[in-house]
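Record type: monomer structure entry
Structure origin: computed from sequence
Chain ID: A
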Amino acid sequence: MIMNSLGSKKQVGRILFIGVSYYNNWYLSRELRKLGWKADVLAYSSENSALYSHGSDFFLKEYTQNDPPKKWFALLHSFFVGDLDYLESLLNKRLKRFASSLGRISSWFVRHAPRPVLLRLLMLFLNSMRTSRLAELEPLYDVLTQYDIVHFTGVQNLRYFYFFSVQHFGSMPIGWDVELLKRLGKKIVYSNTGCLDGVSQSSFRKWEGPEVVCDICPWRDNPDVCSDEHNLTWGKLRNELCDYQITLGGNRGDYNDDPRVHEVPEFYCLDPEVWQPDLSVPAEYRLEFPQGTVKIFHAVGNFKLRTDENNRNLKSTHIYLPLIERLKQEGYPVELLFFSKMPNKELRFYQVQADIFVDMLTVGFFGATAREGMMLGKPVICYLRPQWLEQMRREIPEYVDELPIVSATPQTVEKVLKDLIEQPEKRAEIGKRSRAFALKWHSAEAGAKRLEQIYSSLLKKRW
């Protein structure tokens, strides 16, 4: 506990962020610490964060067991998940008839056993892994005893032990360990990360817009990534496990149309000092173009993975590339700054030299690139889906009213872009509003203040 300005006690808790979520969790946790919270970020080896991460407190390296686990590891393993088939394989013929009963007992135990007993059994389970390097188990122990809230981010990422050892925990159903954390009194928070997070492909296709987004998505025919069954199964589990869910941008279909899902723009935060309009650019990153050149920034992380067989992607690269060439042929002094694989900390040196950011023209909302552009004081072009804006107004009307994003579609983007190219004063005015908007809604300080309210309410059971 610490004291606030009125002298009363202020609830301060302990939160562990699982994964870096680009850099959001890092900057959010640093600001929460200033408010008196124990706030740590744990990155893990299977997370594709090398290009985006700005830091973490712990790194959960995937553990490979060289020594065989103790004999009772398999029994405890199956006990925790109620795996009847596996239980039967462990028992001789005389005892197989008890497998079903044991499965029911384990299911009851995990859900109803006193917390101290459950914690002790879980510790015994971890010890049965028989690692010769006990320090490697410390992150698994710490999440059980050192934190009040565990904050997860991303589809299929509501799991913890799995990231430590796929060898041992890969067969566990997603969410089994999160359910145990809930039984041990932890509050579970989750951040939504995309169009397929809790919404079926069929439902997403129904949103009104300039074109059907799914038709240009490389994952539309990959059921392991996106399908009705895949997305809805995940959404159901997510809603069952999480005490509070964070999203931004509407898309309130299927399992996102739920009272536990909230529009919280402040979570998706940046450090204003890292992305500042007067950022000093090292010599090796300086661009040399003729004076008066309008530099247009466009970036796609994992470009090949996110682009379909017809070279189309959700970031609208297939629209911007020919458009910029046409503008050049018409005599416009423009240059495209296109990037795909570059560490985020370096990319900002090119971003700050740009005059205009261009982003997705069909999805319906914006992401990290646009937030970075606004924080740098740049005008950003991106399609804003009217239906989603109206959904957002229910919780954050002021955010919607103040949005400085310049909305455009594939049909209108040429006119919109020409207008900005021809009017530097307009670019400057929008850029000024963009920086002010980003500071108000997406700075790490704003994020910490908002998330402290949410986390404190969870701990007090008043949300």
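Annotation 1: Residues 383 and 408 are 5 Å apart (CA to CA).
Annotation 2: The mean pLDDT is 87.
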